[in-house]
Amino acid sequence: MLRRLPLPLARSSLRSFIHPFSNSLAFRHYSYTPQINRHFTMSKRKHTELETPVYDPSHTFDKESKDFKPIVWIDCEMTGLDVFNDHIIEICCIITDGDLNIIDEGYESVIHYDKEVMDTMNEWCVEHHGDSGLTKKVIESEKTLETVERELLEYLEKFTIKGSAVLGGNTVHMDRAFMMREMPKALEHLHYRIIDVSSITEFGKRHNFNLIKKCPKKKEAHTARADILESIAQLKWYRDNYFVQPE
Prior knowledge:
Elements: E1 26-27, E2 31-32, E3 37-39, E4 71-78, E5 88-96, E6 107-110, H1 115-118, H2 123-132, H3 134-140, H4 145-159, E7 166-169, H5 172-182, H6 184-188, E8 194-196, H7 197-207, H8 209-212, H9 224-241, E9 243-244
Parallel strand pairs: 4-7, 7-8
Antiparallel strand pairs: 1-9, 2-3, 4-5, 5-6
């Protein structure tokens, strides 16, 4: 996901948030001390860096089960942040269960656009997509937007029941906005609710900044797969350090 440009779209409406965990979660009890006022305490588990999640083929799941509670993690790389004029050029999808276990290797693809289109990108996109090699991949790709949407929908249908999976990611409302215009059929397969990890981050900064600043920083690779894995790892960190099972 692009992060450094001003957002031209200011109409997202995140009205509801659901926790991705199988059992309900509760915040830690407040610690009332002179030094820390209404701050959560850290769990004993601390990490110096985000632990990159990996796919374990031995992990089993049943997409028909009500306990599955899938999260469809999607990250798009675009030619810019103008929802009405820019385009998705890369998309990656990784599915986890409610406990954030990755259930498959995932789907990812690059969509073809001509060099003329890529040359119209803003300076940030030209630099970062060029450095990552994405611009070259886009020009060389033979896949159309329609092909990628069809493949993505087939992937979602293979692992999830329509309407059962929520969309997850960081600032994922932007990915959703682009998908609404360019991949509506794939988006319709998902539940209307989303899990936006950045919302937890922003709340934590206001509620318990001393804890949130201990969360290892993301590497900001700005490739779709890397961004998703970091989002999953970040939510795992919040689960282990910010949330706890109720007694």
